[in-house]
Write a structure and sequence with these properties.
32 residues, single chain, mainly alpha, 0% strand, 1 helix
């Protein structure tokens, strides 16, 4: 895996974590 691929994987993983946190927050707030 070259540096570009590892950077893309890192960004994708970070985005997934952020989305999960936002979804949990919205669910706790009763928006979903």
């Amino acid at each position: 895996m070259n540096a570009f691929e590892s950077a893309v994987m890192f960004l994708a993983k970070g985005f997934g974590v952020m989305h999960g946190i936002l979804e949990l927050g919205a669910r706790n707030a009763g928006l979903i």
